[in-house]
């Protein structure tokens, strides 16, 4: 299905500054970007920095004079997905895990999995399959963590969220990743545009490596999984910051929109839980 994504980021510069932006739709074998344009309302030097297929595209934007700045992005993208039975999905033991996946079982800045092993084991209970363990963690977070904008900051980590019992999509995903990694299952953070998310904003989910593929989960249950358009993925939000600011610059406004170009029949986290089905985003 084809989606139209747009974003507007407004700033005020007191002097020259640099922005490292990660708002472009990711290009993967399963997600085609048909067209895209990133523009500025004033002169700016823009350079795309592509790390690899696992992280996405970063754009370095250099602005050499003070004043207001508005960045506008629009794209047409067609992500694909598949549904697979969850009962059969396992996760490789660390002794056989491919080298490229090892970083995703390690603790990271916002996901201190080494401090949450006992909590993760208690939540997973007697579940035997990796898919069932991840599903139990997603369910537990949805039931025990309140979605409450304004209760956390960009400094809060998984352990902070576990204590506060509230947060936003970023926090839900960080906690889920930490708990999943504590069970030696690879997990990674995902930023995205999300159709039918209300109110419209950038969104964060996570993926767990099950059955030799990355399976998508959304502990917030706020957006249909088949309405997700990838932006970037990484160990946690420190790898996928939407905009990192350097210099005398402050943000003033963010506007985001993602719409499907044909009627979208939502595939929700609730439906997947009930049918014990895994969702794989292309």
Automatic annotation (TrEMBL):
Gene3D superfamilies: 2.60.40.2250, 3.10.620.30. It comes from the Bacteria. Residues 161-221 form the Transglutaminase-like domain. InterPro entries: Bact_transglu_N_2, Papain-like_cys_pep_sf, Transglutaminase-like. It holds the Pfam family Bact_transglu_N_2. Coiled coil: none annotated. PANTHER family: BLL5557 PROTEIN, BLR5614 PROTEIN-RELATED. This is Transglutaminase-like superfamily protein.
